[in-house]
Amino acid sequence: MQWILWTSTIRQIYLILILAGFGTTVMAAVPPVNVDQSFSRLNLNPFVAYTLDHADALDAENIGQFSNWQANPSAAPVNLGFSEYEVWIRIRFEASDALEGATLALPYPLLEDLTVYHDDGQGNMSKLLRFGYLGPDQHDNRFPVIDLPASLTGGGTIYISAKSSTSLQLPLELWQPDRFIANERTQVMVWGSYLGLLAALLVYNFFLLLSTVDRQYLFYVLYLGSIIGAMLPISGLDKVYLWPGDPQYSITLLTVATLSSCIFGLMFARALLFENAIPLAINRTFRLLMGTAALLLVVTLVWPELGARFAGICSGIAMLFVIYAGAYALQQGVIVARYFMAAWLLFCGGLALYLLSVFGVVASTDISSHALQFGSAAEVLLLSFALAYRIKEDRRRRMKALEQRHQMAEKMKAVELQALERATRDPVTSVANEFPLIDRMQALMRSKHAEDNVFAVLYFRLPQCRGAIFSLGRSVAESLFRMVVAEANDYLQTARNTVRLERDRTGLVCVPEFGSVVCLVRSGQGDAGVQHTADALRARLSRAYEVDGISIHTDAFCGIAFYPTDCDAPLNLLQRAGSACESGMMHGDPITVYHSSIEQSGRRRLQLIASLAEALESQEISVVLQPQVDILTYQVIGAEVLARWHSPRHGDVPPDEFVKLAESANLIDKLTLLIIDLSFGCIQQINKRTPGFNISINISVHNLTRPGFAAHIVSRAREEAIDLSQVTFEVTESTLIENMSSVLQNLNHLVQHGARLSLDDFGTGYSSFSYLSQLPIHELKVDREFVKRMREAENDASIIATIMKLAKTLQLETVVEGIEDSNTLEQIARLGADRVQGYYFGKPMTLERFLQSASRPVWVSGLAKSPAALFDKQQKFLR
User: Fold this and answer.
1) What's the DSSP call for residue 526?
2) CB neighbours (10 Å) of residue 42?
3) In 10 A of CB 739, how many CB atoms?
4) Which CATH topology does 425-594 take?
5) Whether the Cβ atoms of residue 191 and residue 67 lie closer than 8 Å to each other
């Protein structure tokens, strides 16, 4: 083991303590050996006298005259630790026939050089044995063994000179030859079994290392190999089988193997005990000890004697630290530390019992003599169990982790399938979206069947579905749209020329966006079949649906694009069908077949968007003012700000067109803020002539869905010193709103800072009566379409009258636009309007012209009644 050299240090300290108590010894204290005829084994250590040749002056010629001997203080072998001097041993034998043929043994294989002399007492000195370096008396024993000469039966003295670069120990035993041979066979068998066990564990764990490729097995295999390397010179078997000629090899092997076992043992202990986390102080100590052992290993290769002196100390410190580390790991709940601590405690117990027998504290028995082997064998076996347990736990954790990864992979697969399902399905109706439609069109285009190579895309859009989001809520709107999709799918099941979009599903329609339904129709029988399917399906969809007790009527618009006539790319074909549908909605055509002019309109739209972005930066956008007149005094009391765009490339672009473009191109915020800045400039100019004049500014609901938009307007008003009480912000009622919370937040912020709110185009949308109680509005603005049709249809006049009464009930003002003649003005006045505007009073004009005309009374020609009479009629009507 790696601690063998350390035991020599303990022995040396023990010897010093003994000598301190028995300081003076003389020859009389060392009796001669009296050998009885019945002896089988005799411990000669109590009969030993020794001396250290400090001056290197003793030899075989003068040793007989030397008298300054020291007695061995105990029955333990002479142990001088690390000594650079030669030691001489003297043993006197009394005459005895039992000495004939007896065997003198020194069972310590680590002696480098030993010579045995016999003094017959007659002045004759003969050399009996030279053990160590190659010489004529070299023999194949594990340690020095001498067959005593027959001349010793008459008595005599044995002198032994010995030297070693490692621990200098001289255990002396006298044996009967047959008992010695039997004992040596037992010892060799024990050592062979022990080394065989280590070799078997080494091979077994080596194959486990190859199968597991685990660093713990690597460290353990190297640790076992180092132990075997250390035990070979300790057992002496290396001298018999490896290098019988030079004991220096044994010393070097012992030191190198001891330091190697120290290094690999520390590595193994750290990896085994602290697999996941290791305290910083313990980790640093591990590294320090491993580094020290590695440094001593290098020193040993250069200066073997110096390395051997410190190898035992380093190994002893490492052993104590490993025990501490094991106890710490056990305290932290590391289960494998139980095996580890048991292994090291058994080894320490075996080492302690062996040392006690060596020092003579306990009797030398077969158990005590082989306690080191037993303890070491138990250690490596328990460490193997510990390692096997750790590997078992690792495999269990890995299997658990593998199972978890497998479960995670299954979950990820399910999530991917769900994600794919969501990516290819409409979230509201769960039918296919445009992706399966594109795939199906590609399959039809690649098909070798002629009937598949001609088909049409029918794109249906129902604006009421999206409008219901704002007027009735998203839940109602989604329920309505699901009913529409189910209706379309049911009808197409009966149509012969429709194309199934997915082979494993019954769906015949897809939903590219909320409120739109698309299907594929084979056109091999001509366009008439496609037209018939479009007419029939549009008629089925354009009806009243009952949703949560509410009857909602829908109008479907259809756009048609043919393959391969209109396009040969699936995505473009779908886009062209959608463009045809959008064009039909703009022009009021229920069914529109795609044609090139629609694409030209689309290109113009893209060009306008690009030009609009430039126009917002180059001041091409301007504003004009249209007067608003008090219905009773015919005085101009306000004006509506209207935007104008004169493009150098496109000419005058209608406001309705470029405002919609700005909303779709995400430019509406820039456009609105520019108009507000221009309007604030108009207010500043008007206030110089007519303070308190009211200006109405249109803002898009898209602006109001942006958090902080109102705060930005308030900030700009403060910068320009504008009193927001002079400003009325008009919000188009027919605009579809989805983020109502942000809209209300912005509107309330404007009202809190003094601004007025007007609900523009009132009566044309889907949400008027539903949200009147929620919106912080001050006035209703009646759409010009009602005024235009008022003369022809009494219903429209009744609608306006109802709006007037509703406004008065809610204490809201009313503004009627579209006044173009005196008769309309008189009729609107009778109905109770507060303010009016229209071409009858003046077309939208520049700020300069407005300033010139606003100060003059409005000339109203052709009125049958005076303002006072009209006021009386209003009151009667409203009552």
Assistant:
1) -
2) 20
3) 14
4) Alpha-Beta Plaits (3.30.70)
5) no
Name the nearest CA neighbour of 746 among 759, 736, 755. Answer: 755
For residue 625, the SS3 value is strand
**Would you kindly state where each structural domain of the chain is located, as residue ranges?**
4-175, 185-397, 425-594, 611-878
State the pLDDT at residue 191.
87
**Local structure of 542: helix, strand or coil:** coil
Question: In sequence order, what DSSP letters do the residues of 574-589 get, joined into one string?
Answer: HHHHHHHHHHHHHHT-
Alpha-carbon distance of 749 to 755, in angstroms, equals 9
Per CATH, which fold does 185-397 belong to?
Rhopdopsin 7-helix transmembrane proteins (1.20.1070)
Q: For residue 360, what are the CA distances in angstroms to 14, 39, 80, 363?
A: 11, 20, 16, 6
- Residue identified by tokens 């062979």 is 192
Number of neighbours of residue 292 by Cβ within 10 angstroms: 18
Mean pLDDT of 433-441: 90
Are 185-397 and 611-878 the same fold in CATH? no
Tokens, residue 568:
């040969």
4-175: CATH class: mainly beta
> In which element (H, E) is residue 4 found?
helix 4-21
Task: Give the Cα separation of 300 and 304 in Å (integer).
Answer: 4
pLDDT tens for 779-802 read 999 888 888 887 677 777 888 888
Q: How far is CA 434 from CA 104, 420, 426, 440, 798, in A?
A: 103, 13, 9, 10, 45
- Determine which of 68-72, 120-124, 839-843 has the lowest per-residue pLDDT on average: 120-124
What CATH class is the domain 611-878?
A: alpha beta
Give, rounded to a whole angstrom, the gap between the first and last alpha carbons of the chain.
117
Q: Would you tell me the crossing angle of helices 822-831 and 867-878 to the nearest 10 degrees?
A: 40
CA distance 13 to 554: 108
Instruction: Dig out the tokens for 407 from the structure.
Output: 């479960």
pLDDT (tens digit per residue) in 186-212:
888 888 888 898 899 899 889 888 888
